[in-house]
Protein: DNA-(apurinic or apyrimidinic site) lyase
Amino acid sequence: MPEGHTVHRIARQLDADLVGRTLRVSSPQGRFAAGAARLDGQTLTRSSAVGKHLFLEFAGGDVLRVHLGLYGAWDFYGRLSSIVPGESAWGSLGAPRLRRAVRMGEDERESPADEGGLVAGVPHDDALFPPEPVGQVRVRLATDETVADLRGPSACEVLDPAEAEAVVARLGPDPATETDLEAAGAEMVRRVRTRGVPVGQLLMDQAVVAGIGNIYRAELLFRARLDPWTPGKQVPHDVALGLWEDWARLLPDGIATGVMITREDLSPDERRLALTDKMLRHWVYGRAGLPCYLCGTPITVEDMATRKLYHCRTCQTRP
Structure:
């Protein structure tokens, strides 16, 4: 599942290329036909993300809410703006898929692929633009120069502003959107330390803290040297606050690079390699059975609330 850093990058790409423009909105797949008809011809006024939720606000007052879930992704075609200085725009953002264009998502990049006569993200030939939809495109947002295709989301709905605010109100704090990080951290700590649920499960609860997925969960807990099965109420205040502060450090880097690099021991050269080699990026995630970088104990993988949990039984202990 795409984690919070990816959704923030999607919001920034849409802000750069579609906000302020009147959009042609369609549903090639047909499953969002009524919503597309409601939004078609409106001007997009704002693109933002909170946790794993994307909110697109239109001049008429409608808000398109998208949650990518496990399989959702956006593909971009045409002229794209760079959202990171010195870096070319990436043509796909979200969950992996066969024959995808250059993908910006959970933990790797793939090679460009020819889809529908155009390579996603490459400036277009007017004679070929817009490309024909490929596969099950739920929503297409289009201008004369740029197309954004949404596929496979778990949620895609048109809300009014009050309904959108209600969704946000149910979410925990997100470091990328909070204006007062100290107050937000205190709230996250309160939500963790009043529960008897294992902290590894709480970090995945979007009502506790927004945006953390399976990779960041495993890595944050390892960096804190905290046993994932520790009940939230047994996590010391300073350890819980440290989890928030570490999340607030890691998230901007993930947004900037498009990947989750959580090992702070990498040299500059190793870090550059980690941008393309996912096996270098993480302390424990995806390393089941391999020796812990610190103590040599084989990394354990087990299930927690139906998701795979990676941790080191030696380095990560209960307070």
Observations:
- Residues 98-119 have pLDDT under 50 and may be disordered.
- The longest strand covers residues 44-50.
